[in-house]
Design brief:
The structure is a homodimer of 241-residue chains. Helices cover 38% and strands 23% of the residues of chain A. Chain A contains 9 helices and 11 strands. In chain A, the strands form 3 sheets. A 4-stranded antiparallel β-sheet of chain A has the order 1-8-3-6. In chain A, a hairpin with a 2-residue loop joins strand 10 and strand 11. In chain A, helix 4 crosses helix 5, helix 6 packs across helix 8 and helix 6 packs across helix 9. The longest helix of chain A has 24 residues. The radius of gyration of chain A is 19 Å and the shape is elongated. At the A-B interface, helix 4 and helix 5 of A face helix 4 and helix 5 of B. Chain B binds a DNA duplex (30 and 30 nucleotides) through helix 1 and helix 8.
Amino acid sequence: MREIVRAPNAARQQRFGYKRVFGAGSVLPSSYIFENGQKGAERAVLSVRRGPIRYRRNSTIVCEGGTADYVFMVVDGVVRRCKAFQNGTRAIVAFHTPGELFGWTDELTHALSIEAATDALILYFKRNVLMSAASRDHKVANTLLRAATSELRCIQLHSLRINQSAKCRVAGFLLDLSARMAETANVDLLMSHQDVADHLGLSIETVSRTITELERACLIERASARTISLINRAALARLLD
Amino acid sequence: MREIVRAPNAARQQRFGYKRVFGAGSVLPSSYIFENGQKGAERAVLSVRRGPIRYRRNSTIVCEGGTADYVFMVVDGVVRRCKAFQNGTRAIVAFHTPGELFGWTDELTHALSIEAATDALILYFKRNVLMSAASRDHKVANTLLRAATSELRCIQLHSLRINQSAKCRVAGFLLDLSARMAETANVDLLMSHQDVADHLGLSIETVSRTITELERACLIERASARTISLINRAALARLLD
DNA sequence: CGGTATGTTGACAGTGATCAAGAAAGGTGG
DNA sequence: CCACCTTTCTTGATCACTGTCAACATACCG
């Protein structure tokens, strides 16, 4: 049987002592959003927005089981959707990066917690307004459909990945992150190794060891623990599949 | 390193020798569908249907990478969406049961193969017709949205499950299956243990052993290998989380 | 009835988790 | 700027769950 308490160190036990410091709401000019790649069909959706609200790293945006009154969009930072288990472990189903609409559901409550993985700026959309708008306006419905579809694709890839070896999982994660961040040179691991581990279904130790191993094999290079350059993307990609 | 060839027995090597026997198309009266719980909003969608077509067990409906010209609905039987890896392993992302609309994507190709896990009756919908219908008719868009949303929920639960122990995975799978089949007394494992194993990210041996273990613990009872009654659902549910 | 496909059980090995301890990074107050 | 503290990351030793290999049992089907 797996142990109940996984992190005996004092440092580790802090992990779930989320600070829950809800950042003071700091409303940006609405032009910010429209300049940020939103246009045309999204206008209708954006007309029901609230916020954006700023969250500090590790603060909870929605608790699992909380009423699903809102759907969200990341303006800045990284957000994680996760579930905490009774045995103290945690699983991160997905990370969300700027521009992504997430938290959509047709149920009354959110099945997962939504937390800020870094300091983050979040936009709110009232779900029932969105829903009734969708049933009248096909543009809104299509925006939601597009969001759900891309989230579906993303989580499908993820579910394929977590049956692979640790090396594949980490390599795939780095390649994905690099693609999402559209960084040319190096990948910035915006989230902690603990977050990466909980996302990939590994322990932090294994994540650390695997990164070290990839570095020794000259596939990546580290400037710091969270600043990684993918030296040999082709070789990394070859690890997958 | 994991071994390349996983199933050395002659019997096992047959696993991917899919028969690809496309069943002759046998068109049912359209009333069949309408009697089968489809109504109202779904009408518009159903007006663009083709089929249903009958597939034999293990035949391929769509190959991974195949053009995504159609979206599908299970009329009867069970369908699996899966990916075969180069090392001979296979991952089943999801099973689909009667009434489910699946295979929706906004990409040009299907990322996963779609195969009949049992003899199955499949309805086809032209994707581009569906897409253009969705951009005009919000009812169609909402039907797609609903399908995508419930698929999303399903795969989220699944991705949470595959980080758990083998016992949790099997117990959860049995409970889910029982709920989906709405069978009162016992669960009928319509798919092979191999399919279950590939879905849960376990080996067939582990699936078999785990089921035996659950039986010895008096949580379940077996009439045959594929006919299982959940004696103590509460205890099974307690294994989860 | 033989032959194939599928499921079961045992022995053993390997990947990754756990436990433990130390190193590096980041933040705060002097 | 430095000392101090907390958090995060790294590395090593050991253990266990689950995969692999092997053999057999059972079910299915012409």
